[in-house]
Amino acid sequence: MAQINPSILSADFARLAEEAKAVEGADWLHVDVMDNHFVPNLTLGVPIVESLSRATKTPLDCHLMIEDPDRWAPRYVEAGAGSVTFHAEAAAAPVRLAREIRAKGARASMALKPATPIEPYEDLLPELDMLLIMTVEPGFGGQAFLDIMLPKIRRTRELISKHGLELWLQVDGGVSESTIERCAEAGADVFVAGSAVYGAADPAEAVRALRAKADGATASAAWACGH
User: Fold this and answer.
1) Does 216 carry a binding-site annotation?
2) Helix pair angle (46-55, 69-79), 10° resolution
3) Would you say 109 is a known binding-site residue?
4) How many Å apart are CA 227 and CA 222, to the nearest integer?
5) Cα-to-chain-centroid distance, residue 42
6) Where do the annotations place substrate binding (predicted)?
7) pLDDT tens per residue, range 6-26
8) Considering the chain, what is the average pLDDT of its residues?
9) Is 199 annotated as a binding residue?
10) Which of 36, 69, 86, 123 is 20 to 30 A from 131 (CA-CA)?
11) Active site residue 172
């Protein structure tokens, strides 16, 4: 079954606990951490993650769009994150960092910006629990989905299958009811949705609708037929 991770970047920051509760039918709550250095935006940090982890039963999926994740990522595990994603472009020692995240009890994930190819990281995939392919340039919510990322999603799914890995493939950026089926058909199974969830009149129903569309597309996708 497809996993839907609403992004609180599109939520009301003055009501984060309530916004988290509004999507408790979701699989994970996606938390975008930005430092105004790796990306040109500043959002939230460790104290907010600590507070959120106490305010919701939904596990936290922290996406670190920050410099020096080798130093900071373990702190987000300690703050309560169940999954921590660092960027390949920012990590000095990605294998060591992934192992440290796992050793602290969270799922380890690595993200790739749109211009970063997957192929140089093929040998690292067994060290990860999830690979995130950005389908917009990281930094801001509400951007249009980049269709040119679909071949990259397909190639990543092929590498996962080639190595027989139980690796989740997440997409983030412009995911909506009009784009999620294409992502699922290409090979994604975890979907971050911000505006499509929190911009809806009923966020919980938006989560259910997105999951249904993704599951429908996955059922007929070539990559899933062998599962």
Assistant:
1) no
2) 30
3) no
4) 10
5) 18
6) 7, 63, 139-142, 172-174, 194-195
7) 999 999 999 999 999 999 999
8) 97
9) no
10) 36
11) yes
All residues at 6 or more sequence positions from 181 whose CB lies less than 8 Å from its CB, including other chains = 213, 214, 216, 217
| 24-42 residue pLDDT tens | 999 999 999 999 999 999 9
Which one, of 133, 135, 21, lies nearest residue 85 by Cα?
133
- Does 174 appear as a known binding residue? yes
Cα(166)–Cα(175) distance, integer angstroms: 23
Residue type, position 12, single letter: D
The DSSP annotation for 153-166 comes to HHHHHHHHHHTT--
Note whether 105 and 77 are within 8 A (CB).
yes
Alpha helix stretches (DSSP H) within 80-221 = 94-103, 150-162, 180-186, 195-198, 203-219
Q: Is 37 annotated as a binding residue?
A: no
Q: Which of 27, 61, 172, 189 is catalytic?
A: 172
| Both structure tokens of 22 | 């509004």
DSSP 19-86: HHHTTTTSS-EEEEEEBSSSSS-B---HHHHHHHHHH-SSPEEEEEE-S-HHHHHHHHHHHT-SEEEE
pLDDT of residue 225: 84
Distance between CA atoms of residues 110 and 190, nearest Å: 14
Asked if 64 contacts 29 with a C-beta cutoff of 8 angstroms, the reply is: no
Structure tokens at 93: 């020692």
pLDDT tens for residues 165-196?
999 999 999 999 999 999 999 999 999 999 99
State yes or no: is 123 an active-site residue: no
